[in-house]
Amino acid sequence: MSTPHPASPEARDRLVLGVVGGSGLYEIEGLQEVEQIALETPFGRPSDSYTVGLLPRDGGLPPVRAVFLPRHGRGHLLLPSEINFRANVHGFKQLGVTHLLSVSAVGSLREDIAPGDVVIADQFIDRTAGRAQTFFGGGLVAHVQMGDPVDPGFSRRVAGAAAAEGARVHEGGTCIVMEGPAFSTRAESNLYRSWGAHVIGMTALPEAKLAREAEIAYAVVALATDYDCWHEVEVSVEAVIAVVKANVALSRRIIRRLAAGLPEATAELPYPRALQFATITDPARIPAEARRRLDLIAGHVLPPSE
Ligand SMILES: CSC[C@H]1O[C@H](OP(=O)(O)O)[C@H](O)[C@@H]1O
Ligand SMILES: Nc1ncnc2[nH]cnc12
Q1: How far apart (Å, rounded) are the C-alpha atoms in residues 9 and 209?
Q2: Active-site residue among 117, 228, 282, 295?
Q3: Of the bound ligands, which one is closest to the alpha carbon of residue 192?
Q4: Which of 122, 126, 151, 226 is catalytic?
Q5: Quick check: CB of 227 below 6 Å from ligand 2?
Q6: φ, ψ (nearest 5 deg) of residue 46
Q7: Domain-by-domain residue ranges, the chain?
């Protein structure tokens, strides 16, 4: 399978679907012409090798290229705090991904979001600590916008695919992203409820911020697995995994249904041009090392060095 350079106009015009699998989703199904690709990045190693292949598309269109990575690694070896989010997103970018679907297990902070329901989260509150949040730094400064952290058009398609596959879908919702790995205290859980949040997880950030910097459209399909501890019963990994396992076939069907309806060209489902007005550093002062490290992410918005 030939892959154009991800920064080339040809690659940026062609829609490529990325899927980052969460707890319980370590493989996807139905891929044709499958390859496993192990990558290195300037930010270290991703969580595992990427599975790359083709998923069928409706309407006589050629299949869509799809790239899958389990964010905790196969066998679930990585804590949320141990995930190298920068390497994971950089790897997706290297493989030409333009649209990244995050699959995530979350706790519910609302009575009306029951275990087994799907939430297409569209806002996040960052309660992580000490995670690398950006590709930038070291002499090249950029500030991307995060007012709308997920891509609305892509998220609508994800919601449509989930509903078509029979899920009970909540379109929109605020996700608290905590550091973990311990689940919340009851006081924290009640505090997050008082903030109006809908669900709680441990991984959507900094993933969404890095996807934005990489100009990859991002959407989350969050599977509610439990009622966090505000609901009186403690959260247990056993309960979370039981719900994920009961819904793993649903998650895979949502991915296939989403892929089937995707257009061929990014013009029909544009990704964010997030870096167009985000860099602030005087191009003449950018260190060569920073230019090299950020070439794939920001090379297209930087004037060439003299
Ligand atoms: C196994 S319960 C806690 C664990 O599950 C979620 O992972 P992911 O978002 O990758 O599905 C949550 O964020 C925690 O990492
Ligand atoms: N209650 C919860 N808190 C944080 N992350 C979760 N993932 C699944 N359930 C969770």
Answers
A1: 23
A2: 228
A3: 2
A4: 226
A5: no
A6: -65, 170
A7: 14-298
Q: Is the CB of 237 under 6 A from ligand 1?
A: yes
> 179 C-alpha to center of ligand 2: Å?
11
- Verify whether ligand 2 is closer than 6 Å to residue 226 (CB atom): yes
- The reply to whether ligand 1 has any atom less than 6 angstroms from the CB of 184 is no
Q: Which residue has the tokens 């891509």?
A: 151
How far is the C-alpha of 213 from the C-alpha of 203, rounded, in Å? 17
Residue position matching structure tokens 């991800």: 6
* CA of residue 14 to ligand 1 center, whole Å: 31
192 annotated ligand-binding residue:
no
| 14-298 topology per CATH | Rossmann fold (3.40.50)
Among 294, 136, 255, 149, residue whose Cα is nearest residue 208: 149
Q: How far apart are CA 20 and CA 17, in angstroms?
A: 10
pLDDT, averaged per 10 consecutive residues of the chain (306 residues), comes to 64 93 94 96 98 96 97 98 98 98 98 98 98 98 98 98 98 98 98 98 98 98 97 93 94 97 95 95 96 97 86
d(CA 300, CA 93): 13
Q: Which residue bears the tokens 């996700």?
A: 175
Could you give the dihedral angle defined by the CA atoms of residues 49, 161, 105 and 169, in that order, rounded to the nearest 10 degrees?
Answer: 170
CB of 52 closer than 8 Å to CB of 65: yes
Residue 198 tokens read as 């809908």
